[in-house]
Amino acid sequence: MATRCPVARISRILACVTIAAAQPAPRPPRRVDVDDVAFRVISAGPSAASAALPPTVLVHGIGASHRYLSRLHATLAVDGAVHSIDLPGYAGLPKPGRDLPVEAMAHGLTAVIAGLGLGPVVLVGHSMGAQWVVEAAAQRPDLVTDVVIMGPVADAAHRTLPAQLSALALDTLGESPTVNGIVFTDYLRCGVPWYLAQVRHMLSYPIEERVAALDVPLLVLRGARDPIAGREWCRALRDAAASATLVEIPRGFHVVQHTAPRAVASAIRALTGRAQVTA
């Protein structure tokens, strides 16, 4: 029987050790209140003053939190400042006492970025986070250098709640147990009432119209097997924008930033002028 070569496994371990060793000490999360709603900011990487790259802001999707962005966050933080933002009503933050449509959430997001002096930033959103970052960039282009939308919703091919739930169920079958564990425990923290309040905004927000209003470069990124953000839909978003690129990550599903963080980070760095992640 042939002996399995351990080189590939050792290389993966060394890559993880390299990323971990390159990380500065983590900073404590910060709660930021905007009017009557609370955000949480998790930061890592070199200071903006010492970094050669613009800061990157990561925004989760509906029901989720910074946790499924953590691998991408750590990879990008090797050579640039990174800030993951938990939004009101998610990740254990207090549920707002009022409705927050996409425009209102984006307004709060820009207030956090401006209030902390983070901008201009590369603004990255996943799933419904794509809607929030596109709207934020349209509202405050002075705060944004580039926009990245990963697995953007809501695909015109299934823009109803039953169709979205069906696509989510299909994606769940392809995701790793780790991804599913993170996502569904975050859904439990979010709760059904807040999820349903937000999903109606997700289904009605015209992201294909709003990307056309962007005057900064746009990267549309999807996992090649993502059933939630289909290929034709992502092509349509790319074509609607003034300056846009579409990147597909082979074998990736919807939460591709967790399963292939280095590939996703490389695509983001290519947009911002660095073709490869240094770690």
From TrEMBL:
GO molecular function, one term: catalytic activity
Pfam family of the protein (one): Abhydrolase_6
Domain of life: Bacteria
Gene3D superfamilies reported in the protein's UniProt record: alpha/beta hydrolase (3.40.50.1820)
Residues making up the signal peptide according to the UniProt record: none
Residue span(s) of domain AB hydrolase-1: 57-267
PANTHER family: ALPHA/BETA-HYDROLASES SUPERFAMILY PROTEIN
Designated name of the protein: Pimeloyl-ACP methyl ester carboxylesterase
